[in-house]
Amino acid sequence: MQRFKPQLTAPLPEGWFAKESITLLAPDGQANVIASSEPLDPTIDTNQYAQVQGDLLRKEFPGYREFAFEPARMLGGKNGYIRRFEWTPPDGVAVTQIQLYYAEEGRGYTATATTPSTQFERFEMQFRQLLGGLALDQA
What we know:
Blueprint: E1 20-25, E2 32-39, H1 46-60, E3 65-74, E4 78-87, E5 95-104, E6 107-116, H2 120-133
């Protein structure tokens, strides 16, 4: 499998914050993985970050059903959390998602793999490979 390494950089004005993301798309458009980072209060740890994200999902996602939430190794061996859940967007097509959470030094990292629930079995192994292959650039 090839590695994709983003190459964009940007100036960051004083007082502004940076959020970044990469999106991986299946050739047939039936699945995607979005990995992102965002600024956080430096006192927020991985556990708090994962809990807050779960609270948002329960509050904002219609028909939310959580299947699993547990500790997991990610981003090159770091201790985070993984959640698998289903919900129904406004288009009425239920989606299943796997989401990872990790926080460190004032940044929150989230990765979300998404596909229609009817396609989840088809993509699950690939999702786990892609999510397991994410890493933080140590440059």
